[in-house]
Design goal:
Elements (H helix, E strand, L loop, with lengths): L1 H4 L2 H46 L4 H58 L5 H26 L9 H23 L4 H7 L9 E5 L15 E5 L9 H19 L1
Antiparallel strand pairs: 1-2
Helix pairs in contact: 2-3
């Protein structure tokens, strides 16, 4: 009752009018779309009848084509009505959105006016100046704190030495677990290399399995310079093979 006296119901009706109009248009649009699908099915059926009777019964085929034409005409009218309804719905939605947007902008303007009612540019300048001063003070304090070291600097060489010791300890532990020795130990156990190139020695007799004979018919045997005993080539190959196996185990 109070709303009727002060115009509350009329204002609510004006607000709900666009929604009601859009709802009515959508209901009509849904009905026209159903009619459109029905006419399309009718046209397909009449076309099928005309094709089936085109050879056997031309009268029935002609009648089917006439009905198809009528359905086609109705379909064109229905499509036009659907297009008009869609345009009206779009126009009403756009107008309603524009009105609501404008109302929201007016409300926002009033709120901003209320917020800025007691605020002046002088207040803004003073506030920004205070903020700049506090920011500069914060930077000065931070620089003072970070420029004064609390503890002594760490010796990088000492760290490198400790790291190398840890790596060697890890390597020794791995060698103990795998049952192999480092390459350096294997190299120490091998005979020392000669200072100069190997000297060639000859023997006058030849037995089965001896090396290839030289030009003078004597087998070639290489002697390491500075050694009294001969060092066969096959023994050196075995030692090199063992060294390669140790290097592969170290890589694992």
């Amino acid at each position: 009752m109070w709303g009727t006296w002060f115009g509350g119901n009329s204002a609510q009706r004006r607000k709900d009018a666009p929604k009601k109009a859009i709802l009515d248009l959508r209901q009509q649009l849904d009905m026209l779309q159903k009619r459109e699908r029905h006419l399309e099915n009718q046209m397909a059926n009449e076309d099928k009848k005309a094709r089936d009777n085109v050879s056997s019964n031309k009268t029935a085929a002609r009648a089917a084509l006439k009905r198809k034409k009528l359905h086609e005409h109705s379909l064109e009218q229905t499509a036009g009505q659907i297009s008009m309804l869609e345009q009206q719905i779009y126009s009403i939605e756009s107008a309603n959105i524009n009105q609501e947007t404008l109302a929201a902008m007016k409300n926002a303007g009033q709120v901003m006016k209320t917020i800025h009612g007691k605020t002046t540019m002088e207040d803004v300048d003073v506030t920004m100046e205070q903020l700049r001063e506090q920011h500069e003070l914060t930077q000065e304090i931070g620089n003072a704190i970070t420029s004064m070291p609390i503890t002594e600097p760490i010796d990088e060489e000492e760290l490198d030495t400790e790291l190398q010791a840890m790596e060697q300890e890890k390597l020794d532990e791995k060698m103990l677990n795998t049952g192999t020795l480092p390459v350096n130990d294997s190299l120490n156990r091998m005979p020392a290399a000669a200072d100069g190139p190997p000297e060639r020695s000859y023997r006058t007799t030849k037995t089965d399995g001896d090396e290839e004979e030289g030009e003078d018919g004597r087998a070639d045997v290489y002697l390491v310079k500075g050694k009294s005993k001969a060092a066969p080539v096959e023994e050196e190959d075995d030692e090199e093979e063992e060294l390669r196996k140790l290097q592969k185990e170290m890589a694992m």
